[in-house]
Amino acid sequence: MEVVIDGRGGWTRGSAGSTLAAVLETVRKALGGRRIVLIVLDGEELTRERESALGARNSDDFSMLEMRTIDSGVLGRETLKGIAAHLANLERAHQEAAKLIEAAEYGRATERLTECYGGWDTLSRAVRDAAFIAGTELKSIDLGPYRADELVRKLNQSLMRVRGAMEFRDVMRLSELAEQELKPALADWRKLVDALTKRLSA
User: Fold this and answer.
1) Angle 106-134/186-201 helices, nearest 10 degrees?
2) Residues 111, 116: Cα–Cα separation, whole Å
3) How far apart are CA 121 and CA 140, in angstroms?
4) Which end of the chain is more exposed for a tag (fewer CB within 10 A), N or C?
5) Axis crossing angle, helix 106-134 with helix 72-102, rounded to the nearest 10
6) Tens of pLDDT along 19-37?
7) Element housing 29 (H / E)
8) Going along the chain, which residue ranges are E strands?
9) Which tens digit of pLDDT belongs to each residue from 35-46?
10) Residue 187 neighbours by CB under 8 Å, 6+ apart
11) How many other CB atoms sit within 10 Å of the CB of residue 184?
């Protein structure tokens, strides 16, 4: 089986008779600080499910293994840029929801606050991904009043309360949670993004 990474051949294939899983492990170790973004085996994407199903087979059963990679630092910085833009969109959404509440447009306000909930959930996942890319544990990042992992837990607790209010379509409770718990947290999440950016640049 030929192994080609980013268009270049000649990579270690493992010893004769190696399984596909063993070859993949060898290549992943050799990549160092680069992250794999795509694996193609004999012209078909190698998903996690397909890798699990084929991993025990002899690598000689296949013709070509291709990988596309990206530098972890580049990937992390691009991820954090996206998160910063997402935070700005979240802030605008909160402002719009507050104006709708003031105008007594409760139906539209509920829709906007529901979008805010989804946006916060996405933010939490994206930050955890960025920390993984940076090789950083959130508990090692001190944001002043609490650590980054505590900030994530605090958000998850708020989102549980928001989800409860959404189930009862309690727009006033949703507005209260957004104004008192979510919107004030934007500044802390910006600090976290700045801290992760500095770690990636170090």
Assistant:
1) 20
2) 9
3) 22
4) C
5) 160
6) 999 999 988 888 877 888 8
7) helix 20-30
8) 2-5, 34-41, 44-45, 64-71
9) 888 999 999 999
10) none
11) 11
